[in-house]
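Quick start: what a row looks like.
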Amino acid sequence: MEVVMSHKQFLEWKYGDKTTIDIKLENLGIKNKMKLEKTLVIGLAIGGFLINHPTTVFALELDEIDKLGNTFLEIIRKASYWVILAVAITDICKTSLKGGNNNSEIFKLIVRYVLIYSSLFLMPYLFDLVEGAFK
C-alpha cells in the first residue's frame, strides 16, 4: 500500500508517533477524530430531520426563485448572443484571411458557434424534460 507523506510525516511515522492511517486522514483534511465525529453527528441529525419532517423543509414557494433564475438566464442569453456572434465573426475572418479553399473550415466554425448558442436554449429545455419525467 502506497502512502504519500511529507518529510515531517515520514519522520513521525518512522519514530512511531503516527500510523499510516493517521497520515492518510491528515492528508484528507480530517486531522482529529472529534471534528470528524461532530461533522458526522450534525450530518446525521440534519438527514434525520429531513426524513422525518419533509413537509416542514420542502414547503417553500419556488415561484420567486424560478422568476429570478429565468431573469438571469435571459440576461446570460442576451449577453452570450453578442459575445458568441463577435467571436464567431472574428474566427471566420481569421480563417478566410488565411487564403485558399476554406469553405469547409468556415462551415465547421459556423456549426460550432450555432451549437454553442443553441445549447443556451437546449440545456434548460432538457432539464425541464428530466424534471417532468420524475414528477
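That is the whole record. The chain has six helices and no strands. The longest helix spans residues 63-97.
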